[in-house]
Design brief:
It is built from 14 helices and 15 strands. By secondary structure, it is α/β, with parallel strands linked by helices. Strands 1, 2, 3, 4, 5, 6, 7, 8 and 9 form a nine-stranded mixed sheet that branches. A six-stranded mixed sheet has the order 14-13-10-11-12-15, with helices on both faces. The relative contact order is 0.12.
Length: 402
């Protein structure tokens, strides 16, 4: 059966009030961007539904793209027919016959968005179901767990037939919640935090701290690959800001007692990220912290680290177990990249006994013995910014950088 369109359901957008059209318009633009390689499609958006008219394009490839677009609750390949009972019955027969194999069961699920239609839902179910049973030998009804669920949606302009509901990515359309900076390490957690932030409509720019010669070029390449994956998921461009952090990290090692060095390192990273945020007009900072997971993620540590900025710090993973985070990383295909054995600057110079309950007054005292501000400003000035596009080859991104 050749479907001629894909019906998109909004989900959470449907709960919006007067600003619903803003979310729908943004979703339409995001769908258009994600499907830019299909020039013949046409997108129609209304207050309740969106349709992708295929116009001969490859529906299976388009379905794979739609699965990753934030703001889509679910979607269905569909056929549009006129609001005439005989046309509905004949189109339903053709659709179900194309999917039927001996032993399969079915049911009809009718829905009338337009109550002026001549038949109610029960009458539609019986009329269409009877027509199918009469014309397909061996077809049986199963209303609880059918193999084929023919969905018939009656709307004012037409009737839409489909047999499959495909889950979407959910959340809100990317870009509807503002911009934030993602502190992206080479680990498992921060890419997942970036994914969840984007799912809530946040546009993200990634910030990565690079400390040569203690961290290798392969560690940088790993983070570029993670950024590439996030760009592929969102279908949008992601900026990656690579911060030279060696001088700052060495100064911390020399000036701050070992058990407080990790706390001070996180504070300097946050200060630098906040400076980049100001330049890029971001409104928040996203981290991959999970409460109590490591010494720097205790509540006392976060309290001491947060002191250096008034910018909102968003922590999508704050209450998640590591196993839950790993499951999401596997689902979004960042887990294998994160597991590559190349150290980032968060894993070098790790103290043997880091403070799990650092005090603000103590860390301020240790940092007061040395003026870190010039090093911070120098790091900000020397940031390398890479634009990651979802449709470019990752090797080209690396060539551009080096």
């Amino acid at each position: 059966m050749n479907y001629d369109r894909i019906l998109i359901r909004y989900g959470e957008i449907s709960l919006k009030g007067r600003n619903r059209n803003k979310f729908i318009d943004k979703l339409r633009k995001n769908v258009r961007l994600a499907l830019s390689s299909f020039p013949n499609i046409k997108i129609e958006a209304s207050r309740d539904r969106m349709y992708v008219l295929l116009n001969g394009e490859n529906g299976l490839e388009i379905i794979e793209k739609l699965k990753h677009i934030f703001g889509i609750q679910s979607f269905s390949p569909a056929i549009k027919v006129e609001r005439e009972l005989e046309e509905i019955k004949n189109a339903s027969l053709e659709l179900v016959r194309s999917l039927f194999k001996q032993g399969k069961t079915f049911k009809v699920t009718a829905k009338r968005s337009d109550k002026t239609f001549e038949l109610n839902t029960d009458e539609l179910n019986h009329a269409i179901g009877g027509h199918l049973l009469k014309n397909i030998a061996g077809l049986r009804v199963d209303v609880k767990n059918p193999d084929i669920n023919l969905q018939v949606e009656v709307r004012k302009e037409a009737v839409y037939l489909s047999c499959e509901i495909i889950p979407g990515a959910g959340g809100l359309p990317l870009g509807t919640s503002g911009k934030a900076m993602l502190m992206l390490s080479g680990g498992i957690d921060s890419p997942v935090a970036g994914y969840l932030a984007m799912r809530r409509g946040l546009e993200i720019e990634a910030v990565h701290f690079f400390s040569p010669p203690f961290t290798s070029e392969r560690a940088k390449e790993k983070v570029i690959d993670l950024s590439k994956k996030l760009a592929e998921i969102s279908g949008c461009v992601i900026k990656l800001h690579i911060v030279p952090f060696t001088d700052v990290q060495q100064a911390i090692r020399e000036q701050v007692p070992e058990n407080y060095s990790m706390t001070s390192t996180r504070r300097m990273m946050l200060r630098i990220t906040d400076e980049i945020r100001k330049k890029q007009d971001g409104l928040a900072i996203v981290t991959g912290e999970s409460l109590g997971q490591v010494a720097s993620q205790t509540l006392e540590s976060m309290y001491a680290i947060n002191e250096v900025t008034n910018t909102p710090i968003l922590r999508p993973l704050i209450s998640m177990d590591k196993t839950d985070i790993i499951k999401i990383a596997d689902k979004i295909n960042t887990l294998d990249i994160s597991n590559r054995p190349y150290e980032d600057c968060c894993t070098i110079f790790v103290p043997s006994s880091p403070k799990t309950k650092p005090r603000r007054d103590k860390v301020n005292q240790f940092e007061s013995y040395f003026d870190f501000e010039p090093l911070i400003q120098e790091a900000v000035q020397e940031v390398e910014t890479l634009t990651i596009r979802p449709d470019r080859d990752i090797r080209q991104e690396i060539n551009d950088l080096f």
